[in-house]
Amino acid sequence: MRPFELTAPTTVEDALDASGTFFAGGTTLVDLMKLDVLTPQRVLDINDLPLRGIDTTDGLRFGALERMGDVAAHPGVYPAISRALLLSASQQLRNMASIGGNLMQRTRCSYFRDVNMPCNRRDPGSGCSALAGVNRMHAILGTSDACVATHASDVAVALVALDAEVELAGKSGTRTVKLTDFYRTPGETPDVENDLRPGELITEVRVPRLDWAENSTYVKVRDRQSYEFALASAAVALDVRDGVIADARVAVGGVATVPWRLTAVEEALRGKDVTEESFVQAASLAAEGARPLAFNSFKVSLVKRTVVRALLELTEGSRR
């Protein structure tokens, strides 16, 4: 790790006036600094900023500095969000990592984390080693010829499914952006991963009230039971009335360059009976537009099966 200056602003205004890299839990930043992937000259410890609190009065609101473990355990947090958090990392890391930091975490692509290998995210224009390399963990959706790295966050998938927004603070004021619009697919500029402008800071996450989001879940398929990133995951919420699906929210992770909302699957579920056959038919649309690579073509069928599994788990006992 290279030398750096550490400062600790106590107000949002001071943090925005300073120039440096924000630090909260540090569970991603410190790793990347050790690997020389990130080499900030100044690190801003923002843990003293007033960006905490969890409110479930009308929908959900939580400060960006709330720890993952605390949000997961809070009464009133929708099950898909809580489960996504509990299936992330380890208990020790969940007690350290902030919600804002989790949403901003960088890809776990091994080529991105190896400064000796070409990577367009880390070094624009250098190339993408994963295209012809070991790409079993990489994306099949939202990819480009410049990057095929998957997005790492679990909770971002659940939040995208539930129409979450993030509040962003900058020197010119605050703005609110839907999480689906916040993340950017790589295109020709994979180094631009999100809509965060220079100097801006995530201050709050908001999830609109959705009464039937209590009927939600998150399923994560991975190589081992714990402390592993997803091969495929699915966040699902269903509004079921008299055995018929009135509305649905579905998003997937582990298979795309950003948390991937499946609006076509949602539409295919609406008005259908709660049956496994209906689920399989709707989930057949989950991999539309997929571009599998040499070692990850299995994800095409896996993401469909993961969506079906989440729907089955969610409706166990109520299917016809």
Automatic annotation (TrEMBL):
Location of the FAD-binding PCMH-type domain: 1-212
Keywords of this entry: Oxidoreductase
Molecular functions (GO terms): FAD binding; oxidoreductase activity
Keyword Iron (UniProt): no
UniProt keyword Oxidoreductase, yes or no: yes
Listed SMART domains: CO_deh_flav_C
Name listed for the protein in its UniProt record: Xanthine dehydrogenase family protein subunit M
